[in-house]
Amino acid sequence: xxxxxxxxxxxxxxxxxxxxxxxxxxxxxxxxxxxxxxxxxxxxxxxxxxxxxxxxxxxxxxxxxxxxxxxxxxxxxxxxxxxxxxxxxxxxxxxxxxxxxxxxxxxxxxxxxxxxxxxxxxxxxxxxxxxxxxxxxxxxxxxxxxxxxxxxxxxxxxxxxxxxxxxxxxxxxxxxxxxxxxxxxxxxxxxxxxxxxxxxxxxxxxxxxxxxxxxxxxxxxxxxxxxxxxxxxxxxxxxxxxxxxxxxxxxxxxxxxxxxxxxxxxxxxxxxxxxxxxxxxxxxxxxxxxxxxxxxxxxxxxxxxxxxxxxxxxxxxxxxxxxxxxxxxxxxxxxxxxxxxxxxxxxxxxxxxxxxxxxxxxxxxxxxxxxxxxxxxxxxxxxx
Length: 384
Ligand code: ADP
Ligand code: MG
Prior knowledge:
Elements: E1 3-13, E2 19-29, E3 33-37, H1 44-51, E4 59-64, E5 67-68, H2 73-82, E6 83-86, H3 90-93, H4 99-109, H5 114-127, H6 143-155, E7 161-165, H7 173-188, E8 192-197, H8 200-206, E9 209-214, E10 217-222, H9 224-228, H10 231-236, H11 243-253, H12 266-274, E11 285-289, H13 295-304, E12 309-313, H14 315-323, H15 334-343, E13 348-352, H16 357-371, E14 377-378
Parallel strand pairs: 3-8, 3-9, 6-7, 7-8, 11-13, 11-14, 12-13
Antiparallel strand pairs: 1-2, 1-4, 4-5, 9-10
Bound molecules: adenosine-5'-diphosphate and magnesium ion.
Residues 44-45, 88, 165, 196 line the site of magnesium ion.
């Protein structure tokens, strides 16, 4: 294991004497997607503030790629560049009169030259899908757009680790999914991601590692199914089980699904149900690189597959769909939805941002390995 971020027996007492962290040890592997899950007051925000040096442990230590944090000004600057923190409340993070100035603040502070600052800001705004928002005042944006600006401000410093306090709080479900997909996209291009949440559905479906916290302690950490199958611990933390796990348990008790690996998603649960009856042929997923496909090719492809389900993953792909005036049937949870259609024997077309291509193939391969089914994923513009 190559830990990007570690807390080693960390304690923290607020100035008023409140013990917010009683002894917390966690390891966040480089490249991982980790969710800190726990009820209000568990200590999640305190731990995230510690992760980029805004708070200093009362005892124990934080480490970044094995190096203990140091708290002199230079070291802190370096830590804050390498570990980007997005606060729960965007209004607390955004302060400049325009989106551009807000996102430029970090790079300017790092002492980048003018042209490099412009490039960093342009890239970061493109990454979060906010091209063209440069001169807008942040306080007049929607909740989802404000989060996106806050994320861009952090991305402009190219952090290796992104820590994000309650990424979906105060967002409507569609914006929440968009933010989580953006985090997937960043993760696919190598950023280690830690989020805090009390939303068990989000943690269970999204994270590849879950840290269950309560009362300033870690109750358990491990794979999401490992953690959430421990019903007593989950209830001790005043949380509830993810709905798919609850349903799976009930269906298993009634003999409606074979007991087996706990489902990670609706897709897995449906497969467990489907596998009790004989399957017909499966549909195909046509995977198209949004950065490569031309207007005419795309129209030809759609004309050749009337009624195909169309989805887009990643900001570049969504921008392409927008330019082409495509009606997207799937704009979130795209891979699972395509696989659900494939199980019904229907085809889908996924426009995908380049960094997400490998991620799609990995996810489908993981599904195949888990289920023993074969679902064809094809680039229609490449000979097989
Ligand atoms: P979570 O993010 O899991 O809800 P927090 O880290 O915000 O938990 O808080 C952990 C505990 O520390 C809570 O009991 C909270 O009331 C307390 N706490 C948080 N911030 C402060 C503060 N600035 N001063 C004193 N106590 C605080
Ligand atoms: Mg909090």
